[in-house]
Amino acid sequence: MYEPIRTKSVHTPADDAGFPHRTREEELDIQLAGHLSALLAVTDELGLGTAGDRIAAQVARLRGAPPARHAGLTDAPVAALHRRAHALAGRVLVVAASRADTAVAILAAEAMDAHTAALAPRTATALAGAH
Fold first, then answer.
1. What's the pTM?
2. How far is the C-alpha of 81 from the C-alpha of 45, rounded, in Å?
């Protein structure tokens, strides 16, 4: 009536598999470096050299090598780039907070503030024109 299972289950832990496992911290480092690299690309496109240098330094610290930098121009409006950079900085902040990386969290918060400020005059002008 009952036939014992002779093959490994798909639910068997892969602890003895022949590939390396990453720790949670390593996974967060990879994710954080990726978000920072995306923020760096938008920052470079906006022509914000000093801010880009600070972000590149953090990417280099996380990856162990400096990032490749080039301004891949998308011809997007400046306001759209600031909104994109603000959203990316928010993602960086979330991952940096979960990783307890204070330096990157501060950098991300400053970037969010800078991009919010860059959008503020346009937003106020747009709202004034709408009324």
1. 0.78
2. 8
